Amino acid sequence: MTNIKDMLVILFPKSDTVDIEYVANIIEFKCQNFGLNTPLRVAHFLAQVREEVGAELKPISENLNYSEEALINIFKAFRNNPELADKFGWDEDTPIADQVKIANYAYANRNGNGAADSNGDGDINEDDDGWKYRGAGALQITGKGNYIEVQKRIDKYIVGNSVNILNGKDIHTLKGSILAAAGFWIWKDIYNDADLGTDSYAIDHVTARINKHTDSYSHRREHFEKIKHLI
């Protein structure tokens, strides 16, 4: 698939040549077994990654620097416990929110994560599940259960694999970020949606599999259109 690098150059104009080459090699030599084995599938994959990470190829993770008001509006845990929103969210007196504690409470007892107060003593979960398994990777995987399923695919499809996204570090590297996205891709059989074609129907199907309730459907179609001619 000689067009991977060209697709990356178009979609990620803020990336340097080294990162473009690095990611192109990962996709071409590591991701074939994840179902990223045709130009069409790769184009769909990269269009989705572009929307998630932006114009530069870099690891990103969920930003949880929310105000007290935003925490109450967004997360049920804080809506039901506004005193925690006041304690952990930013305000005029506290310019930066406590993102670790926010993640642990917001994502407690969800997607395989443990409780925020695991010992019943008022202390945050010592494993920091919410924070450790917050949204990350090139397709923003969230929750310990999802991380585990993706890691299973990485271990299965990469011989001699050295990436472990469960350690709280590898998913925040460029290689780990891309491989986590590829693992999610094959876990959810998204290649089947990609094979529907190049029209809006196919692109929207892929988007819905990755983030059904996103408001970025049109942006993801635009990204795909930019590289459609390289398929």
TrEMBL record:
Q: Which InterPro entries match?
A: Cell_Wall_Dynamics_Protein (IPR052354), Lysozyme-like_dom_sf (IPR023346)
Q: Which Gene3D superfamilies match?
A: 1.10.530.10
Which SUPFAM superfamilies does this UniProt record tie to the protein? Lysozyme-like
Q: Which domain of life is it from?
A: Bacteria
Q: What is this protein called?
A: Glycoside hydrolase family 19 catalytic domain-containing protein
Q: Origin organism of this chain? A: Halarcobacter anaerophilus
